[in-house]
Design brief:
Blueprint lengths: L2 H8 L2 H20 L5 H7 L10 H24 L2 H17 L6 H14 L2 H13 L2 H15 L1 H16 L3 H21 L14 H12 L2 H31 L6 H26 L1 H25 L4 H27 L6 H25 L6 H21 L15
Helix pairs in contact: 2-7, 2-8, 2-9, 2-10, 4-6, 4-7, 4-16, 5-6, 5-10, 7-16, 8-13, 8-15, 9-13, 12-15, 12-16, 12-17, 13-14, 13-15, 14-15, 14-17, 16-17
Length: 411
């Protein structure tokens, strides 16, 4: 073990989990804190199309998806730390720039650039976790990271709403820049390099394409990644239309962030339970069970929404169940995808992130744009995502669910 790796392992476990969650949470903050402000942003630029406001979310995700493909070879060549420092700079500068743009189109372009430049957060975080853990231990750590990461969607909409009480929507971007700057200092001081020098890959065309070939030809990893893309896409569909559903359909008004936070609390609880249970039952069993429940609930919600106007308590119950199950599928599918690819962890994280984030953003954008003053498009999005994901998992596992895999894949 080199000195850098030795340093990395000395970082306390709780701080390590908190820092990895922060890296992933900065992207969530840049998305979720905007939700209460979407009407104000649209009104500020004279854009009256409610569905167009969703582009503030979607273009950030599209940029993050494309950017992840670029950061993979970089973090495998230059390590995890230096690309992260660049990401922090882009995060802070673009957030500040958003406060002075003069048109809605310029803001959307800036959000695209922000997503492109900060895509390395997720890539580096997953690569760092894979550098130091594998198998069920990796799934446990990722579950705990997701649990802490869920603090962002729990508190972000409420913070956004509070800022709007005291300042215009530009104040939200200033807050995002402030949190980014604080996190930048923390990572700069406390985050050593985790990439073992023997695993560094040269930044050549042959090496880059060789790394992508290793990832793309791993059949099970790729299928699980694409399955996770559809499940994530249904989550994005909910993010895109959540403000309209809770405010316009169910009339929650300023209470919308509280309803949103309640779902995020369930996701945090689910992530913690997964971290405790995955070491006993394994990644496959947890992911397969959750995906089946997710799909069944989604189909039931779609059928119910097509027959009657679904009340808020019933909708909220279904939504809570769906997001609870998402918190069991996401870390376990990510672990199943990443586990066999430790030597190209950065490239693997970027490839899977590209498919999941970009594909999920486009799927979620499609679902959100179908919003028609009912929950039917959202319910359909959940159902389609669940059915396709379950079919892909069956293909990956050759028709057999609830296995534990071999020692290299599910230990």
């Amino acid at each position: 073990m080199n000195n850098q790796n030795a340093q990395r392992r000395q970082l306390p476990r709780l701080e390590f989990i908190a820092l990895m969650a922060t890296l992933m949470g900065l992207n969530a903050l840049a998305i979720d804190i905007m939700l209460p402000a979407l009407p104000d942003i649209g009104a500020g630029f004279g854009n009256d199309n409610a569905n167009d406001r969703q582009l503030v979310i979607s273009f950030y995700l599209i940029g993050a998806g494309i950017g992840q493909l670029l950061f993979g070879p970089l973090v495998d060549r230059f390590g995890r730390r230096n690309p992260l420092m660049f990401c922090f700079g882009v995060y802070v500068i673009t957030a500040l720039a958003a406060t002075i743009v003069s048109s809605f189109s310029a803001l959307i372009l800036l959000r695209l650039v922000q997503g492109l430049g900060t895509a390395g957060f997720r890539v580096a975080a997953l690569a760092i976790v894979r550098d130091l853990h594998h198998g069920r231990a990796m799934a446990e750590i990722l579950s705990l990271v997701f649990m802490v990461f869920m603090i962002a969607p729990i508190v972000a909409p409420g913070i956004g709403q509070l800022i709007l009480f005291a300042a215009p929507w530009q104040g939200i971007f200033l807050f995002v820049a402030l949190i980014g700057a604080i996190s930048w200092v923390w990572a700069y001081i406390r985050l050593p390099e985790s990439l073992d020098q023997k695993n560094q890959r040269p930044l050549t065309v042959k090496s880059i394409f060789g790394g992508f070939k290793i990832v793309l030809t791993n059949r099970v990893s790729m299928i699980y990644s694409i399955a996770g893309m559809f499940v994530f896409g249904s989550l994005v569909g909910m993010l895109n239309s959540s403000q309209q559903i809770f405010v316009e359909i169910y009339g929650l008004g300023a209470l919308f962030p509280i309803a949103f936070a309640g779902v995020a609390v369930l996701m945090a609880i689910a992530s913690y339970l997964n971290s405790r249970m995955v070491t006993q039952f394994g990644m496959r069993r947890m992911a397969h069970f959750a995906l089946i429940v997710f799909t069944v609930c989604a189909i039931l919600l779609l059928a119910l929404s097509m027959m009657t106007n679904v009340s808020l308590p019933v909708f909220y119950g279904f939504l809570g169940t769906l997001f609870f199950m998402f918190s069991w599928t996401a870390p376990n599918m990510n672990s199943l995808s990443m586990n066999p690819l430790g030597k190209v962890a950065g490239t693997a994280a970027s490839t899977f992130g590209f498919f999941q984030t970009l594909g999920g953003a486009l799927f979620g954008l499609w679902v959100g744009r179908l919003y028609n003053d009912t929950i039917i498009p959202l319910a359909a999005g959940f159902a389609i995502a669940g059915i396709i994901s379950l079919a892909l998992v069956l293909i990956a596992e050759r028709g057999k669910l609830f296995g534990v895999g071999d020692g290299a894949q599910d230990t």
